[in-house]
Amino acid sequence: MITGVDSRETGEGARTVLRCWGARGSIPSPGGNTARFGGNTSCVELVVRGRRLILDAGSGLRLLGERLMEQEAPVRADIFVTHFHWDHIQGFPFFPPLYDPTSRIRIFGPPQDGVDIRTLFAGQMGPIYFPVPFDAVAAHLDFVPVGSEPWEEDGIRVRSFRVRHPSTTVGYRIEWDSHSVSYVPDNELVGGSYPVDSDWRERFVDFVKGSDLLLHDAMFPEEEYPRREGWGHSTPEQSLELAREAGVQRLLLFHHSPELSDQELDRTVNRLQQEAATRSPEVYVDAASEGVDIVIEEV
């Protein structure tokens, strides 16, 4: 069973499995119109068996790092980056545990055209882009390329799958016991042209099949998508169809457009919940929101 707990109101009394620290796409969008769903870019924290997995390093990573330094020094974490577009790495230089020599952090991600992930992060902190040099990082860092083989440790298994998005981009599936969470923040399900095999859709459905929770790209409203085809993103309706096809229990719409207000996202969620009730009653639909913990109960 999956339950949602708003940690902004109730604290952390229940065992947290997943917390969203940022669900926006492209660029942070702070302000009164986005306060409820949040304006930070992609960052999700997953706590399983005492292990902290962080999915993407968008601007939400800064707030997560501040919380960790207050509550959990020395920090131990594994960060899984889906790709290196700005909105998925812009929080990295502002992650306080990076500058603490007692922190031990492993960073996983897909190499880009032969460039290793350490070089990609170091380049982000070059003097043209950032005033603090990469040499100032004091934490112990390990950089691990992801590929066809899953990563497995302490009964937790993380698999990656290349998705349809500009640059080499992956989604992740985290499995433990009989549970699974799939995280695919950037993925164009229908249109565009990408270097994937003809059976990509079938294999991708199998990758997310039966997930307790699927966070999936739903950036563009259906009426806007024709003008954005080939930009690497999906619509809420396309994501719901994927969840139905894959037998997912709960779908969280993710990578919200920075232009969408809380009220517009509410209308989207209400529309999809009505559609799901008619066509896919087995799928619960919501939109990812900062500060809301998703608790997966052991059954």
Fold and architecture overview:
- 43% of the residues are buried.
- The protein is α/β, with parallel strands linked by helices.
- 23% of the residues lie in helices and 27% in strands.
- Strands 1-15-2-3-4-5-6-7 form an eight-stranded mixed β-sheet. Strands 8-9-10-11-12-13-14 form a seven-stranded mixed β-sheet.
- The radius of gyration is 18 Å and the shape is globular.
- The N and C termini lie close together (7 Å).
- About 3% of the residues have low confidence.
Explain briefly what this protein structure is.
It is built from eight helices and 15 strands. With 299 residues, it is an alpha/beta fold.
